[in-house]
Specification:
The complex is a heterodimer of chains A (83) and B (182). Chain A has 83 residues and is mostly helical. Chain A contains three helices and no strands. Chain A has one domain: Non-ribosomal Peptide Synthetase Peptidyl Carrier Protein, Chain A. The longest helix of chain A is centred in the N-terminal third of the chain and has 16 residues. Chain B has 182 residues and is an alpha+beta fold. Chain B is globular. The chains are: A mainly alpha (83), B alpha+beta (182).
């Protein structure tokens, strides 16, 4: 299982790839839409995080997990259920 | 580079497959690690540039491969032409089995992307019978284009109405295609 720090790093790297920028600053409780993510970007963020962490989040819906804190908790729950 | 596109059938938008074929035929031969994404629907012709677009440009999509990025921008010119588009011929030529579809190398008159879009749209419509959803091609990510016959395997529904399928050549996963419902 990934740690919160590993997950945060993956999300930030994923955000940089999705937004095609070299740097991005976001707090754990800051909404992804506040840094310019639309629904298509959100889907791609899920794909990037899966690739970076080597996990499969299945039918994951980022709309209910729109910041790092909630995304982490929901991802942890999904991966835990996979055993 | 500017386009002179035609709208397919009775659609109320310019098909992403037309844009993809334009790029592959004229600007990106034998691409590797390719990706195309569409941001908005349009009924206008497009311009294609490798330069960074002006701040007031209207992006329709973006294509990327080993040679860099091509920006797809909307022009003010409305598309006047329409062409007949018998997409059902693709569906008839393919073999569907559960979440998989086998697509032959040749369906006369149809490109790789036209076959892929027709097949996955058919699969999604079959999975949602009786629902009045439309499914639109929004993104493609591939290591390379298949050389001949290929398969499409539905993988999952993601949030916000997105669907993902794998594109396979034999047992090799070449990448994924993404649709959105609206």
């Amino acid at each position: 299982m990934f740690s919160k720090d590993e997950f945060r790093s993956a999300v930030i790297e994923g955000l940089k790839r999705v937004r095609d920028v070299s740097e991005i600053k976001i707090r754990d409780d800051e909404s992804f839409s506040d840094v310019g993510l639309d629904s298509l970007d959100g889907m791609n963020l899920v794909l990037e995080v899966e690739t970076l962490l080597g996990i499969n989040l299945g039918e994951f819906d980022l709309s209910g997990a729109n910041d790092i804190n909630h995304f982490y908790e929901k991802a942890k729950e999904v991966v835990s259920k996979q055993g | 580079m500017k386009s002179d596109f035609a709208i397919k059938g009775s659609r109320d938008y310019l098909s992403g497959s037309i844009i993809f074929d334009f790029i592959i035929e004229r600007m990106a031969k034998d691409p590797r690690d390719l990706e195309i994404v569409f941001y908005k629907k349009t009924l206008n012709n497009c311009s294609f540039t490798r330069e960074t677009p002006a701040a007031d440009a209207v992006p329709v999509g973006k294509y990327r491969d080993q040679d860099g990025t091509i920006h797809i921008l909307e022009t003010p010119e409305v598309i006047r032409k329409r062409v007949d588009y018998p997409e059902e011929r693709v569906v008839q030529a393919c073999r569907f089995e559960g979440p998989m579809a086998a697509v032959p190398a040749e369906v006369p008159g149809f490109s790789f992307i036209e076959k892929l879009v027709a097949v996955y749209k058919q699969m999604l419509q079959t999975m949602h019978p009786g629902e009045k959803h439309k499914f639109i091609f929004v993104q493609l990510k591939l290591k390379r284009l298949p050389k001949g016959a290929f398969s499409v395997r539905h993988e999952r529904r993601l949030g916000n109405g997105f669907f993902q399928a794998a594109v396979l050549e034999g047992a090799e996963r070449l990448g994924g295609v993404f649709f959105n419902e609206w």
